Predict the structure.
Amino acid sequence: MRDFSFEEAQFFAGVEGKNTFLSPMERTIIVKQMVDMMRAGKGGLSLKLPRRTITFTEGIAIVPRLISMNVVQNVSALHNTEYLKHLQQKWVASLGEQPIDQVKDYFGTEIAMYFAWLGHMTTALWFPSLLGILMWFLGGFKYKNNPGDKHDLYQLISDICFVLFAFFNCIWSTIYLEWWKRVQAELAFKWGTYDATQDSYLQDPRPAFAGDYLAPNPVSGRMEPFYPAWKHTVVRYVITYPITCLCVVGMFVAMLAIFTVQDLADFYFAESFFFHWICYLPMIVYALMIVISDKIYRRLALVLNDWENYRTDDEYEDFLITKIVLFQFVTAFGSLFYIAFVLRDMKRLQETLATLLITRQVTQNIMETVVPFMIEKLKLSSLTYKMTRSMSDGTLRRHVENVRNKRQSSVEQEEEMSPKRSPIGSFFSLGSPTEGELRERKKHDEGKLETNDMKQLRTLSSIFREDFSLKTERLPLPELKPSNDSNPELTQAELESVMSVYARPLDDFLEMFIQFGYVLLFSPAFPLAAVCALINNLIEIRVDAFKLCNTVHRPFGRRVKDIGAWQKAMELLGILGVIVNCALIGQSGLVQRIWPDLSWGGQILIDVVLEHVILASKMIIDILVPDVPHWVRIETAKQEHFRREAFKRESRLLSHTQTPSSDQLQSSNNQQEPTTPDAASRFNRLEQINRSKRRSITPMVRLSSFTRKPRNEDNCID
């Protein structure tokens, strides 16, 4: 896929349809870039407010600076409520396949790639779930460490199931990750982002990037903010790493304190019939503490990442993911490692894993949907109260009666014309009124309260729009809608202003990453972990979709070719899963029961050999399964071949347009100018190529382009 430019617009398919050529996601990207790229000029500028003055240094982005100073609360795109309503019916209220292409067109490739990855993981979880259920019904795993039980048939079956399930998890994770690489390559090629990766010097600085001064880009030559690399290193090693280590150590100390309380609770209340439930409280408190500490540390990680001041969005996000994953790994898995390899209590490991997994899933789903939805409704109620408290009693009663009649008529019409809605669709149809409902409601109210002046204004507006539409093919001007003080109504921007901000799916990726770790690292101790993860994912897809459609601002789209740093994080987790599962096999007592006279060093040697065998199997699978499907490689090779052939033809045509010598010029004057259609067509093609070659290599605006072309008054809007 080739980047769009106005000078080559005629070569792009569908460019004639100005309303359909760009997708909703691409329009939001263009608008967001225009807003973010507004920077202070040479010498800087200052903004004087009633209580303070904000200074903008040279080259700093203006809008992100205003947001950081709380002058601008938020910059967001408005939802297309009609499009969103149809998308919600196919996505949120349906249990079928996700409409990934429609999600991509509306929310962007980054969010669509996340939901494709989530759906792919849900499909892959069916295999360990079915095997885990089978293992569980066979009797579960019996945790004994006494070598004298080697003749116990039940224990032998449990040991075999434990080893097979651990080995299956290691191979399954490898196949799943390799399978996903191929799927995301197909999606990236289908969405035109397969070649989206660029060198950092070719990318524009992120809006919040602050440099010490302006310097030319070594590739494009454009002036942009410059920040010395040594400052990154100083901030990272002097501030970021010490604070991160302090947070990790503090969390570890809190974990030890809770385990001490857990031991005391087991000692005093384990045998009690009425107070046995107290033994589960420490683990529940620990799970809640993990959720709260994650929220606090994530804000701290954002502050630390801002101090490091990375130039591009990719660098910023990669280092942010590294910080968050490091802390999350300790908070989510630290207690399990402590129980498995320090206390060596497999039964307690099973109980702790089940408690953490289920509590975390329920808490996250409530925090993602119920809490933001209730906060939005409370804010909307407060905003409505502020708007209506200045109205008189008669006006308020009339307005409420109009809304009630309108809603009753719409409900009756919907029951007559539309099919019966399913319970799932009825549950997920909550949210703010759609744009069509607001428009119909306003027309209904204005029809009763419209004055002669308002009619004249609307008549003039319609005449102006009709006259304008005859002169230009551009989009028509927005309809003039005069306000009526006696009938106030909240606009769509005011309704969506109470929603939460959704920047990127980082939290959603992180939640699934932790769940993947629970399933992969310790699921042999709790075979039903994959079943819990599968059920949660089936709900998570609808929960996240409901959140995007009803409780958050419309995010600005972003073009990506893969899931980024999360792919490497999951691959590292897969390698760690092999080590942990082999260590769990050693902790299970299987080796001691088979070889009771084997020394401790011999047991370690057997675990290491088994680990290397599984790692070798993972490497073989990685080599045999290519990351990119064969048909994608063929199509990309065809595109590259067409590019090279076009460049060769263009070079040959340009070679004939070189300046001729004086003898050639004199001889050419004596010859008759060719007037054949083929010669004229060739001449026009050469002129077209020359014009395309004169374009700038950078996206900077050329002033000469405005002076050469005459102004067309009929096709411009001042």
